[in-house]
Amino acid sequence: MPAAFSLGIDFGTTNTVIAMAAAEGPARLVRFPTPEGELFAFRSCLSFHAPPEHPQDREIAAGPWAIDAYVEDPAETRFIQSFKTFAAQESFTETQVLGRRYRFEDLLSTFLLKVRDYAGAEMADLPKRVIVGRPVTFAGASPSEPLALERYETAFRRMGFEEILYAYEPVGAAFFFARELDRDATVLVGDFGGGTSDFSIIRFEREAGEIRSHPLGRSGVGVAGDAFDYRIIDQLVSPALGKGSTYESFGKVLPIPQRYYAAFARWDQLALMRASRDMREIRKLVRDATEPEKLERLVETLDENYGYHLYRSVSRLKEALSAQARAEFVFEAGSISLRREVARTEFEGWIAPELAQIEAAVDRALEAANLQPHEVDRIFLTGGSSLVPAVRDIFHRRFPAERIETGAELESIASGLALIGRERDLGRWTSTSSPEGTLGRG
């Protein structure tokens, strides 16, 4: 890669992808050498381990190396994934990991620096400017966009960047998709990540041999793949861990508090629960529970840090139901063994509230662009949850099937961000983290 190149970073809830683009030609993905071969989709996770023989030491790993460390010693390894989901949460100030305090920006900068180390020579000589992807709407009940971008700014500056520009993630995907256009077109891009579902509508036109682009509308909602995961857990796993059961107190039969199971809505929170006040309460309730074996399973799941095993079980079910009408859910870890056949229609019923929110966001994007569905020429869907049939049906109800395309689920955003970085008028597509920034104006 020449000295003058553009760098795009897609820090995602599930995966992080980095791309570089020279002055001409397509973007190139940064690849990471692992014992199993090279990969470009780097899992957005961290592990912290204190060796028993040297408890004051901290062994920190990221991506597949973090997963390996966790699988090797789950009980003694603090494993954190999906931490992007609390970037914009004012309620999250810090977490303690092995006796040390980490704010969100500390977690992110630790992760980014490990990513750079694992990339080796690929990221040895970085430019001073970077284009960072960001969701249209951050995840969470009341997300603070200024807070999230302030935290991003701190973390990326620690990586050595001096100029940090932000572009909406679906806009990055649109730039990637525009390479395939052979005529002028109005394009709607849907990006379905782990924490957010984002939409942008852009007009691409050929002008003097170049493709010119004009943003028309955008929208987003803070639900996506992780919210689907929670619905699966809430239906298949939480009841076996005590949700809906009862305990006895002073002669009264009371319900097990529902808040114990709320942590399963976010993978990051599940990792934090082991040292929480709720965890101490759960241990005490085991002896008074009417079905103590269920709460014992909950204690084991949290104590033994089964979150990643549960994540894989849920992911496998989602993937299977995207390809077939029925599939078996299997979660086996330690003494816990849960199996149940699930129909796709059943799963779609569970995620109906999230589907409704996504559908409303699509309509808001069309309204913001002042367009009717028939005025959109192409639809490009990207991100893992775009493969869920019920998600795709949202678009098939609005647009002819021949206009809808999907693909490059993991690489499109980062590659597009790198391509944006070589635009002449970056201000049309990016902003700084300052409140007065105008992201994607024009």
In words, what does this structure look like?
The protein is of the alpha+beta class and 442 residues long. It has a domain at 6-166: Nucleotidyltransferase, domain 5 (2-Layer Sandwich). 33% of the residues lie in helices and 27% in strands. It contains 13 helices and 22 strands. The chain has helices spanning 63-72, 104-119, 145-158, 169-178, 225-236, 267-272, 277-285, 292-303, 307-323, 344-350, 352-368, 389-396, 412-420; strands spanning 6-11, 15-21, 28-29, 32-34, 37-39, 42-43, 45-49, 59-62, 77-81, 95-97, 100-102, 129-134, 163-168, 185-192, 197-207, 210-221, 246-249, 252-255, 326-333, 336-343, 378-382, 404-406. Strands 1, 2, 3, 6, 12 and 13 form a six-stranded mixed β-sheet that branches. A five-stranded mixed β-sheet has the order 16-15-14-21-22, sandwiched between helices. Strand 14 (185-192) and strand 15 (197-207) form a beta hairpin. The radius of gyration is 22 Å and the shape is globular. Residues 435-442 have low confidence and may be disordered.
